[in-house]
Amino acid sequence: MRPARYVAAVPLVTSARHKPDEPVPVERAVHAVHDPAAAGARRGKPWSTSRFRLVGHVLEQGAGRRAEAVIGPVFRSKGLPYDGVGVPSGGVPPRNGT
């Protein structure tokens, strides 16, 4: 037996901003207004740019431990997560391992 990989799950507040043209620099995008987006909502059109903002809080029982957002398995795109000030914080591969 191994320890549980995830000790708790909390919902993320999700919002999105869809742009029909080229991406906006991340320095501007982190401050842009995003509209609420529910699970299963439509994304932007092919070759458009959609930025998603996912916000969650670490529970007290997880303080001091690694926190991880599990996205998918239906995520069918690539992504580069940024923290709240625009610093890259990892990556999301295309098809997210599916």
Tell me the layout of helices and strands.
Blueprint: E1 13-19, H1 26-29, E2 35-36, E3 49-55
Antiparallel strand pairs: 1-2, 1-3
Question: Quick gist of this model?
Answer:
This protein is mainly beta and 98 residues long. It has one helix spanning 26-29; strands spanning 13-19, 35-36, 49-55.
Explain how this protein is built:
- This protein has 98 residues and is mainly beta.
- It has one domain (1-97).
- The protein is built from one helix and three strands.
- The chain has one helix at residues 26-29; strands at residues 13-19, 35-36, 49-55.
- It has a three-stranded antiparallel beta sheet with strand order 2-1-3, with no helix packed on it.
- The two termini are 26 Å apart.
Q: Please count the helical segments.
A: 1
Radius of gyration: 15 Å
Poorly predicted tracts of residues:
none
Which class do the helix and strand fractions yield? Answer: mainly beta
Number of strands: 3
Sheet with the most strands, sense and barrel status: 3 strands, antiparallel
Structure keywords:
mainly beta; 3 strands; 98 residues; three-stranded antiparallel sheet
